[in-house]
Amino acid sequence: MLKFLFGVLTDPLGLSIDAIWEYLILAVIGAIAFGIAWNISPGGEFGSLIHWVVRLIAFVILWAIVYGIIALVQWIFANWILILCILGGVVVIGGIIAIIALRE
Question: 12: pLDDT confidence band, cut at 50, 70 and 90?
Fold first, then answer.
């Protein structure tokens, strides 16, 4: 029953990338979450419940981190000209500050 609930709760957590890469990344995240939950679960009467709760929490946290990284990379690729302009401005301002600091 807990496996079914885990599958239902983690299934809609889709990433904004190609489906093959999405399933591959989600499989890796699921394996890492399983490893974390396996090592934390003490066994015994409530071991299974603890395992599934920890596994769900670890999965969601790892998924959120990966989702944020993917969103950031997609934003960088979509706005690379803006990023280059900002970096160029920072370099120019840094150069002006360095010139002023060296003259005094």
Answer: low
